[in-house]
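TA notes, week 10

Several of you asked for a full example with nothing omitted. So below is the full record: structure tokens for the whole chain, then the designed sequence directly under it. When grading your own attempts, check the secondary structure regions first.
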């Protein structure tokens, strides 16, 4: 039910953002914030207003509100969720880089003129487009073997042409919430929040560690994709089966910490998979007292 509610909320905010509703007023801070959380949530609101708009910031507030008024959720956890969630919702893509370069140029009163070059895979660039447009392009790229081919993209404020190009890229934010990447990010945030909720029900001591798993995804490109794949491996291999009652893991927090320490930049995930398998084997192995008897 919580996942369904999250999907409905996301779709509601998606369509109101696309229709460019006239209300661009930032949402109010939610009632019931614990001490120290207001500045963090306020910063998150303004970040997401700049990133996508008022409706996206309201989605952020709606997600934060899910944890307010619950006795089992302490103030520090709410602060961490609010801070990390804002960062994940403002995920880095080519549109975001264009926005940041334009902001740097504007805030310097047009004195800072620079050129940054970032390398993207073709599928990363296409993923930022609406799915109906992206799917056929991805099929073609896959056929010719170019999906993972890297291309260098300049983000320049050194010329009028560069600035016009950045403005065109930043304008694409209106389509961002219809993109493949947004769909993936929405699903990830909702699953992360769902795991936190399940942690409170099953193993409350695991919640701080579950919250911090949001730091596994950084930036874009291979590093981001590897972090995302590792996150799903840990959740699918340890957290979910523990919450489902399939894996008798008494200390999920320590298990996640151990697994994260084994993760490295390896597309095969050899070390991580080995660590998860060892943790599962220890949890499901014979009771040492019984074995001794």
């Amino acid at each position: 039910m919580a996942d369904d509610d999250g999907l409905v909320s996301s779709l509601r905010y998606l369509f109101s953002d696309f229709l460019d509703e006239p209300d661009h007023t930032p949402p109010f801070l939610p009632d019931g914030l614990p001490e120290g959380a207001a500045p963090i949530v306020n910063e998150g609101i303004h970040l997401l207003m700049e990133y996508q708009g008022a409706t996206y910031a309201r989605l952020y507030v709606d997600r934060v509100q899910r944890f307010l008024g619950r006795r089992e959720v302490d103030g520090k956890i709410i602060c961490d969720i609010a801070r990390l969630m804002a960062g994940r919702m403002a995920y880095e893509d080519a549109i975001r880089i264009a926005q940041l370069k334009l902001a740097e140029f504007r805030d310097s009163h047009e004195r800072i003129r620079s050129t940054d070059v970032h390398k993207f895979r073709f599928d990363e660039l296409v993923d930022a487009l609406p799915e109906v447009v992206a799917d056929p392009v991805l099929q073609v790229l896959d056929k010719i073997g170019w999906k993972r081919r890297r291309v260098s993209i300049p983000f320049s404020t050194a010329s009028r042409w560069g600035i016009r190009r950045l403005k065109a890229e930043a304008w694409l934010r209106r389509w961002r919430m219809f993109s493949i990447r947004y769909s993936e990010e929405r699903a990830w945030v909702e699953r992360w929040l769902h795991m936190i909720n399940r942690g409170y029900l099953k193993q409350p001591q695991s919640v701080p560690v579950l919250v911090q798993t949001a730091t596994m995804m950084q930036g874009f490109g291979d590093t981001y994709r590897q972090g995302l794949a590792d996150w799903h491996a840990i959740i699918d291999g340890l957290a979910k089966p523990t919450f489902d009652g399939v894996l008798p893991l008494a200390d999920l927090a320590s298990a996640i910490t151990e697994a994260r320490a084994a993760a490295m930049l390896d597309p095969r995930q050899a070390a991580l998979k080995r660590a998860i398998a060892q943790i599962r084997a220890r949890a499901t192995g014979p009771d040492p007292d019984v074995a001794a008897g």
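Residues 288-293 have pLDDT under 50 and may be disordered. Use that as a sanity check on your answer.
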